[in-house]
Design the sequence.
């Protein structure tokens, strides 16, 4: 088994055990190396990932590795931004805390009462046309708590600033109204608290806890999809807060109507306030984001490098930051800015989406999960609207992203004629130009298809 194969298997197992958000946050850009007999070294992109994996996920990683490769007896972790530089890194260990990593460590100074991270403030939030609606709405909520947009529902793809914006609202409210009880939780945390309360026979404590907040912020609400008991409890919590004139703020990776397995009454609650989306920043905005983020870096970045990063890292502000960090870490080790060729290699690690991962079945699977339909229905002759649209989108993506031929696509969908595939493709291609919602859905879908 090669290192890549081993790590892929381990990642598959880890993915089952942790939430998607945690999986992406902590396991992205990691790799494994076997350094000595019986020893495996996990390479991680930065210091806080290292710490986090060591402290939180070591057991899980160890178990998955040992199941697949019993001869490995110990696992260690190193910060490594290049494929195999960790020997160099090891010698340099005492130096390896970069200034920007110390900044990242602020992640751990989360306020225990509000659960807010002081790092996320409006001052550092860059506004462009891609997020100005969400930003304006966020500002209004701070000025008009529970009176203007309630609830506020912000949605957008991975790494586009939802958490930053939600927490900035919380921090700003807390700053100007110290007496208000503000609380931030991921929907996962909310669910876990609920389960813990039920298990310890103290459901009332849970209710009291969540219903006393003046401002409740729930991040990534899409994860309550399909969790009936959580939705039930959430509905009551929401109603109590709302009736008592408290502000509620949500984020999600998609609009309420696209969250599958969501109780109708909850969906209509989400839709009752303001829904604002964050789309993807264009090239100029990406460059502006890089320039702003650069202010906190020690090294001067030549403009070609910034332009290069802005042109290739297109979808995700977290990846833009990651690209700056990786280049800046390299500059720190080299004591000078890496040249363009090396920058290209470094960045490729961040954005590389191995082609083989985009399979037809992956596209179909993600489309079905996204629209919450059974794969079987996609291939049947059903003309139901809730099936026709996902089917056309799947055909569109098979053509556009997978580059499948029309006869292949027609065949794949229950032996249809190739003209059906052409029709579906052209229809979606035409509609996304005029229907922003459809465009957003497809972008979100692509996020999921290309993730990992
Ligand atoms: P999401 O919750 O949508 O996945 P995050 O809020 O975690 O995304 O953002 C990812 C990273 O990008 C964070 O470090 C965040 O500070 C940064 N970021 C996102 N949007 C902006 C923005 N508009 N201005 C500055 N930084 C941003
Ligand atoms: Mg987030």
Sequence:
């Amino acid at each position: 088994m090669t290192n890549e194969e081993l790590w892929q298997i381990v990642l598959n197992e880890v993915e089952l055990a942790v939430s998607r958000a945690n999986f992406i946050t902590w396991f992205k850009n990691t790799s494994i190396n076997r350094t000595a007999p019986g020893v495996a070294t996990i390479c991680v992109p930065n210091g806080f990932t290292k710490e986090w994996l060591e402290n939180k996920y070591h057991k899980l990683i160890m178990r998955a590795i040992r199941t697949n490769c019993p001869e490995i007896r110990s696992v260690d972790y190193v910060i490594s931004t290049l494929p195999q530089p960790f020997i160099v890194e090891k010698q340099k260990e005492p130096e390896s805390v970069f200034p920007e990593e110390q900044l990242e460590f602020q992640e751990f100074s989360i306020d225990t009462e509000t659960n807010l991270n002081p790092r996320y403030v409006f001052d550092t939030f860059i506004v462009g046309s891609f997020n100005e609606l969400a930003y304006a709405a966020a500002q209004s909520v701070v000025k008009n708590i529970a009176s203007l947009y309630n609830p506020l529902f912000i949605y957008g793809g991975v790494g586009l600033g939802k958490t930053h914006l939600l927490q900035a609202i919380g921090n700003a409210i807390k700053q100007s109204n110290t007496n208000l009880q503000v609380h931030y939780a991921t929907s996962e945390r909310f669910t876990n608290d609920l389960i813990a309360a039920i298990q310890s026979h103290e459901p009332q404590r849970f209710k009291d806890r969540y219903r006393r907040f003046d401002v409740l912020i729930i991040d990534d609400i899409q994860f309550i999809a399909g969790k009936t008991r959580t939705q039930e409890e959430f509905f009551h919590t929401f109603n109590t807060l709302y009736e008592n004139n408290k502000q509620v703020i949500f984020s999600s990776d998609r609009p309420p109507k696209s969250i599958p397995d969501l109780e109708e009454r909850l969906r209509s609650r989400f839709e009752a306030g303001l829904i604002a989306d964050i789309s993807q920043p264009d090239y100029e905005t990406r460059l502006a984001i890089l320039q702003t983020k650069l202010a906190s870096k020690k090294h001067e970045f030549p403009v070609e490098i910034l332009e290069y990063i802005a042109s290739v890292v297109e979808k995700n502000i977290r990846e833009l930051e990651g690209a700056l960090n990786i280049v800046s870490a390299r500059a720190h080790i080299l004591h000078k800015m890496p040249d363009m060729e090396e920058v290209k290699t470094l960045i490729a690690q961040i954005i590389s989406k191995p082609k083989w991962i985009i399979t037809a079945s992956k596209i179909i699977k993600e489309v079905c999960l996204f629209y919450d339909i059974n794969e079987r229905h996609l291939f049947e002759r059903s003309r139901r609207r809730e099936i026709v649209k996902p089917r056309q989108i799947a055909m569109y993506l098979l053509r556009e992203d997978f580059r499948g031929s029309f006869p292949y696509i027609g065949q794949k969908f229950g032996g249809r004629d190739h003209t059906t595939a052409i029709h579906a493709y052209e229809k979606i291609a035409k509609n996304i130009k005029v229907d922003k919602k459809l465009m957003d859905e497809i972008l979100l879908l692509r996020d999921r298809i290309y993730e990992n």
